Structures are given as structure tokens and as C-alpha cells.
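[Q] Does anyone have a clean C-alpha cell version of this?
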Amino acid sequence: MAEPGIELSQTLDKKEMVRWAYRLFLDREPESDAVLSGRSQDTRSLRAEFMTCEEFIVANPHFSMLHDDWIIKITKYGFRLFVYLREVAISKNILLDNYEKAEVAFVQSVVKPGHTVIDIGANIGFYAMLFSSIVGPAGQVHAFEPVPFLYDKLNLSRQENRFENICQTYNCALGAEPGTLNLFHAIGGMNFGGSHLLSEPVDPRREDVKPVQVRTLDDLLLPGKIDFIKMDVEGAEPMVITGGMARLAEHKPTILCELHNDGLRRVSKSDANQLIGALAGIGYRCALLLPDGTLGETITEYAAEAPINVVFSAA
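[A] Here you go.
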């Protein structure tokens, strides 16, 4: 196994290292000082972060062997999944069996056979298939994905694994109230995880914005108790919570989600502190998710810009 890189905290100036990464890999200055506090903790992960980003790959096609093809990946967890070879944020890491190891470890420790799980923002279906493989025929998985072509691949993977009787899929978003909202998705992009709902007026000339149906968690006719929710909705988390407050208060499912202040401000006109506070108001505590998939300290606020994954559970 390759040795880890040098910890950025050991360098003279972590922000200066990130600044030079922008210059070396992207041939430009950072767009703001805020991006200099990225996720990477060592030089190896910093290098990987830049060399797998869309901007670097587009500018340096000779460094990659990306093809415009969908293939079936047999994951190390036993299920099969349709992945896109040109997409680097999700598909590439799944192909390398390196996708969200901490989150997967946590899911495996908490989700059990017979559970009912909701996957909000299912994308190509990695977690929906993982959940289905765990809960089995006695359980239920409800997967929501508003982007049509991602929803289609989610269904193909469901059929490939013969999970049709376990996993129900929905081509819509979840939000604060039923209706229609506009969804941004970069056409031909190399990051399938960048779709987000728009709160501002839409330029009709933009082909990457489409109206999508929105439902609420409280209005869904789901039988039984909800045990677990994975939520990856790029800043729309407060909207989902608002539309599911009654059911969340009643069932207290464990919730795995991301806190990203920039996305929360852009999409929901909110922030991480408000989200933590809203769930605390119905009996939840928020804990950091550690790299080994266990829970760290409880937090009551989060003001940093770097996105982190957290777990909300009954207090």
C-alpha cells in the first residue's frame, strides 16, 4: 500500500500549499481565499483532489483515459452498479473501490436486515444498492433522484441486482412543500453530484436548468417506521427537513448528511447552525463522522466553509 503524503498541518502554511496547487495544476490563482481551506489533509490527497477535478481533466486530456461509456462495476460489497467512465467525482472512486469508506462503514454498522431506509439524492444508486443488499427482502428502500438520466441508471442497477421488490424509486426531489422547483445540472459535466435546486429566477436560455417535481417526506405514504435516512441534496437539506418535520419527530430515524455552508446559503438561504438547531428542536443531536466510520464529538454549531459529513441521531 502506498505511503500517505505529508500532512499539510506539518507544512509552513497549508493555505499556501493549496494556493500553489491551484497554480501548478489549474494554471490560475484561487477564486477566493475561502477555497484554500479544502478537505485535503496531506499532499497525496491534495494532489488527487486536483488531478481528478473536471477543470484539470478537461485542460489535460492526455493525463487520463476517460471514455464516454457506461459499464457495470461489480463492487466489493457484492452488488453491481452502472458507472460512467468519464465521471470522476463518484464513478471513478466506485471503480477504484474507494468511495466514501467512512460513510459506508457507518451504514454497515447501523442499517440492519428488515430496516426501512430512505435515500434522498440517490444519484446513480450506490447507496440505494448498498441499502438494498443489507435490508434484504424483509426491508424497504425508497430512493429519490430528480435528474432523469441518473434516475434511469439507478433503475438499471436496481434491475441488474434484482432489487425491484426491495427498492422503490422516485423521479422527484423532496422539499419543504409539494410543487415544482428548478434544478440545475451541468450538462456533460464530470461530477454527477453537483445538481442543486435553484431559489433564484432562471434564465430561460440556460439548457442546464429544468423544472422538477417536489414532494415532501411528511406526505409520502410509506408504511411502517423509518429507520435510516441518507440525505445528499447539495444545500437543500433544510427544505427536506421542513417538509418532513412531523415524520422525523415521530420516527427519529438516524440521518447521515453533509453540512456545507456555501451550498446551504445558496440553495436554502440557511446555514449549518440553523439546520443543527432545527433538528435539535425535535430531539436530535449532531455528531461528526470520523474517518473510520465511527461517531466523534457532538457539535451544536458549525461555521466553517469546508463541507463535512455528520450524523443526526436521537438525543
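[Q] Thanks! Anything notable?
[A] DSSP finds eleven helices and 14 strands in the chain.
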